[in-house]
Amino acid sequence: MNGLSRSTLRTLLIGSATVALTLAQTSGVAYAQKKKPDTKAAEAKAAEEKAAAEAKAAEEKAAADKAAEEKAAADKAAEEKAAADKAKTDVEPPREEWDIKDVEEKPGKTYLFIGLRYRGNLIPKFMLNMFVDEGKTVYSNSIGAEFEMRKDGFSLIPALTYTELGTGDILFKEKGSKDIAGNYNLVNSSMKVIYATADLLWSSKISKNLDFEYGAGFGLGVVFGDLVTNWVREDPNGYLHSDSGKRFIPCPTVDAPGTGCNKADHQNSDVDKVGGYTEPSWFGGGSKPTFFPWIAVPQIGLRFKPIKQFVGRLGLGFSLTGFWFGVSGQYGLEKERKD
């Protein structure tokens, strides 16, 4: 080193410094050039990750929105169904349209009617002759109120009926006895009966408005009024005629002339039946009935129903008091619903 000159040494130092500076600059540029591409890649990757995150968030939001919409739709459908169910329970069943000419009677339904009846009762002479001789055919009238309960073609008809049993004067003779005045009696009934009865009738359809009915009737009547029995005696001008051609008049007293007006002519009598004798009731030891049964078997007829609120009947039957026929009219209690 001592052999080098100062100027040479200075030149070497300057050259070394220049080389070192050049290397340092070259190295920084190279480092700077190497680092710049790595930052861009990171930024690109970050951008991709951000986009992916945003896409995922958008998908999750879309899924959440769809789920919310589906839940809202389900809730609305449930509310509508609940409202419809409630409306069904609140709404009354549809009304039956009222048609007065629709006379169909539905199975299981009870129909009610109220009305009036008339019956004529005929006791033919031949029926009386089963118990006594002579006599005549007797006709009586009945009128009453009735109430019908009808279901499935069967009618139960309770009724309260007034019957008039007036006969006028009738000449009777003891059954199979001799043709003498002492065996004859005059009978005159002004009795009345109030019957409580019930008809049981089944029906078969003939047409839309017409039914054939069959059944029976039962009941009991309370008897009031008078039953007059009077002895008679022969009189050529008498108004009572026997089948044998004899004429009779009632005995006014027991001492009236002729046979038939005293006890000796009536072996079975304990009382003087003269002057319009009135029979006591059964409770008084007499022959006038206090109660009388009503038994009508069979009875048949036709039931006519042209409209809902009217029923008409024609009936025939046989009872303890003979043959009868009847007519009745009823008003139906079925009403149109008014809401």
What value does the average pLDDT take?
86
Q: Uncertain spans, ≥5 residues at pLDDT below 50? A: none
Q: What is the strand tally?
A: 12
Strand order of the largest sheet: 1-3-4-5-6-10-11-12
- Per the CATH scheme, the topology name of the domain at 112-332 is Porin
Helix content: 25-40%
**Distance, first to last CA:** 137 Å
Short description:
It is built from 2 helices and 12 strands, in the order αβαβββββββββββ.
Provide structural commentary:
The protein has helices at 6-90, 125-128; strands at residues 110-123, 133-134, 138-151, 154-173, 184-205, 210-224, 227-234, 240-241, 247-250, 291-307, 310-319, 322-332. β5 and β6 (210-224) form a beta hairpin. The chain is built from 2 helices and 12 strands, in the order αβαβββββββββββ. An 8-stranded antiparallel β-barrel has the order 1-3-4-5-6-10-11-12. The chain has 339 residues and is α+β, with helices and mostly antiparallel strands.
How would you describe this structure in keywords?
339 residues; alpha+beta; Porin; eight-stranded antiparallel barrel; 12 strands; 41% strand
Secondary-structure map:
Elements: H1 6-90, E1 110-123, H2 125-128, E2 133-134, E3 138-151, E4 154-173, E5 184-205, E6 210-224, E7 227-234, E8 240-241, E9 247-250, E10 291-307, E11 310-319, E12 322-332
Antiparallel strand pairs: 1-3, 1-12, 2-4, 3-4, 4-5, 5-6, 5-7, 6-10, 7-9, 8-9, 10-11, 11-12
